[in-house]
Amino acid sequence: MRFDDAYLDTSEVQDVRGGRVPGGRAAVGGGLAGLIALVLGLLFGVGPDRLGLASGGDEPGATASSLAQVQRTCLKGRDADAREDCRTVAVVNSVQAYWTREFARRGGVYTPAPAVVFSGRVTTGCGTAASSVGPFYCPVDRKVHLDLGFFDDLRTRFGSGGGRFAQAYVVAHEYGHHVQNLMGTLARSQDGVTGADGDSVRVELQADCYAGVWARNATTTPSSSTGGPLPTALTDTDIRDGLDAAAAVGDDRIQAGHQGRVTPETWTHGSAEQRQQWFYQGFTSGDMAQCNTVR
């Protein structure tokens, strides 16, 4: 996955890496507790308050000179091809451009959501979270929160093959939750039931499908009225990378790898097969109406 050399819109990404986090000592850390939180929170459409991660206390951060790297270095598509953080900007630009046009086509209005790039921990409208929670969308502040170190974890801890499009899939999935929030889907899907047929799994699978819908339309949707960064043609390898990432964070894969057994009654995201199926459903159809996982 590569981008043409149009200008990036860094206003859609807030770079707070290395900054001071008020109330920043999250209750979850590494080890088993961090892993459990990651399994629960990974790519999930709720913030860390729902995971019991908010807590008080200040954590010192780096100096202000380390902040806002994105704004300084991510200027054009060539930067997205060279740097992971700039690639995040390009994908955010592309995803939001697509949903802006799709909502308008359907007679609605898409409200953009900033992406917050952080390191270590972050304070959000949903509470304070450590990186171990994984990427998440907070419906309270309507922001997507990403620690880019997760993409290394995706390869080393979850066995994904990686690849540039794996990163794009994760970002697009989180923005799928923002679409659900704007449409009222998140508010309607609060049965609190875990398991293969619970609302939480259905919401996750729909976000996977929405990620596939974007991927299908990404190469024909300029990111702004002036052109914007446009992903060049997605290859079969790109799509395989997306499918591989979707499978890597399937509940059954995570459970089998870390507890030695699979317990479908506790699933929150769906199996590897389901996550691949719904991403591919979105990609092959290119139509959000075909992402009918939610009752």
Structure, described:
The protein is of the alpha/beta class and about 300 residues long. It has one domain. Helix content is about 45%, strand content about 10%. It contains 11 helices and 6 strands. It has helices at about 30-40, 70-75, 75-80, 85-105, 150-155, 165-185, 185-190, 200-215, 235-250, 250-260, 270-285; strands at about 15, 115-120, 120-125, 125-130, 135-140, 145. The strands form 2 sheets. It has a 4-stranded mixed sheet. Strand 3 (about 120-125) and strand 4 (about 125-130) form a beta hairpin. Helix 8 (about 200-215) runs parallel beside helix 11. The longest helix has 22 residues, at about 85-105. The radius of gyration is 18 Å and the shape is globular. It starts with 12 loop residues before the first strand and ends in a 10-residue tail after the last helix. The model is unreliable at about 20-65 (pLDDT under 50).
